[in-house]
Amino acid sequence: MSIPAKLTQTLTPGEVNFLAENEMITILPRYSLDKLQLIGTRIPALRPMKREQVPIWLAIILKNQDKCNIVMPQWLTVRQLKAFYDQEVKNSDRFAQLPWHWIEISKALLEKASDDMPDKPHEIRTIIQDLREIRQLKARKGLKELNESYIQLDNLSLLEINELRPFIVKVMDQMRKLSDSVNSGEQ
Amino acid sequence: MNMNIDDILNEFENSTSTKSSRDLDNQSLIRCWVNERLTPDLLIYEADLVDRMMERVRAQIEFIELNSIELQNEKEIKLTLVIVESELNRINFLLRSYLRTRLSKIDRFSIFIRSEASEVKKLSNDEYVYMENHLKLLLDLYNTTFLGKLPETLQKIDDTSGGLSMITRPDLKTVVFIRALENNDITVDDEPVELIKGGIYALRYEAIKDLFEKKAVEII
User: Fold this and answer.
1) Residues 6 or more apart in contact with residue B101 via CB below 8 angstroms
2) A22, B180, B195, B210: least CB-packed within 10 angstroms?
């Protein structure tokens, strides 16, 4: 088997995480490192206290070895997340515009770099959980609208889409088969 | 002003090469892998891209071998090697998963692919040879184990008569998730659907296949 059947036409959470780790993040190096040519990117020379943008996977390696501090993205603060949460509550018919990989990135940063957070990590964690729950609830309610032609899911993040994917694909497929057989029966 | 000349030079270098060809290749490989994974049909093989990436992978392995023998005790090179190796593993994963996903589609659809010249064109040379050999082995197995014992009229494995085709082909009606990269109007089941730039939709692959090929939507 070249690839397990369950992996066709979907991604695993691990693979979604892999995609998230390719996003860029700002770090504050505490250590010098010459610039480095990699296969898929070039890492700029790192100098202590000089901010640089690097992929998240690299930031985590450096952070694990205590060689940098991670500058938290602007959205990952209690204030900003609360604002997102308020939007979720206020607009029951749409999702707040969170980053494409907000769950994975916040999880990684909470795990690996909570000491770099200006806010209290447990507050961030709570509010992330609240956001996650209210969005899941809304997504499930929205599934009532599911029909065989299409559904719109604006502002959901990739991980959230990936969670809904098996269900939506299967239901839309079944509905299509039903409506196809009804139509052919009428003729 | 406490910026030294190195900083200025660095900044200049950074601004001119923020998107190097390597970054672009890396992003396209990620995109190709996601596309191949999430579409029902086989896509065109990205020969040049894969060749370039493989060449760089080879060079990087050489770099690791050279440096891990000579400079084992230096701390700086150790961190560099950790970074280089992690990245190498990430790229290898992408390449492998991309190629294996294609192989799984080739296995499933080989009879269909062989019957259409436009499908055969999507394969690399190696993939074509693989498909032919794999199919031959499979047919030999079928023939010796059970097909040979059946009446001749039932021996076909690509029978399309009787309104029912035996050939497995990609189901273009499968639901895929897309993000619209520009505004477009499409029709699904005689119903107009407006795709708005940035919007995310789940709909049948056949409805957006053309737009996908024109890069007006991306598969997610």
Assistant:
1) A2, A3, A7, A8, B33, B36, B37
2) B210
If DSSP codes are grouped into helix, strand and coil, which group holds residue A69? strand
Strands A24-29 and A68-70: antiparallel
Q: State how far the Cα of A37 lies from the Cα of B197, in Å rounded to an integer.
A: 35
On whether the CB atoms of residues B42 and B102 are closer than 8 A, the answer is yes
Tokens of A56: 């998240």
- Mean pLDDT, consecutive 10-residue stretches, chain A (187 aa), reads 77 96 96 92 94 96 96 96 97 94 97 95 97 95 88 94 94 90 75
Phi-psi region of B39 (alpha: psi -120 to 50; beta: other; left: phi over 0): beta
ipTM of the complex: 0.92
Write the pLDDT tens digit of every residue in B16-36.
445 689 999 999 999 999 999
Q: For domain A13-175, is the CATH number 3.80.10.10? A: no
Ordered structural domains, chain B, with CATH: 5-127 (1.20.58.1030), 175-219 (3.40.5.60)
Nearest CA in chain B to A12: B37
Pair of tokens at residue B176? 């895929």
Burial class (CB in 10 A: 0-12, 13-18, 19+), A154: middle
* Number of other residues whose CB lies within 10 A of the CB of residue A79: 11
Interchain contact A182–B (C-beta under 8 A): no
* Model confidence at B5: pLDDT above 60: no
Radius of gyration of chain B (CA): 24
Partner-chain contact B20 A172, CB within 8 Å: no
- How far, in Å, CA of A163 to CA of B199, rounded? 18
Q: How far apart are CA B199 and CA B195, in angstroms?
A: 7
Residue A43: closest CA among B86, B67, B98, B92 = B86
Distance CA A166, CA A38 (A): 36
Q: How many Å from the N-terminal Cα to the C-terminal Cα in chain B?
A: 47
End-to-end alpha carbon distance in chain A: 43
Residue from B194, B200, B211 whose CB has the most chain A CBs within 10 Å, to mutate: B200
Q: CB–CB of A84/A155 below 8 Å?
A: no
Residues forming a β-bridge with B201: A152, B178
Who among B57, B83, B200 is closest to A152 (CB)? B200
Q: Give pTM, 2 decimals.
A: 0.90
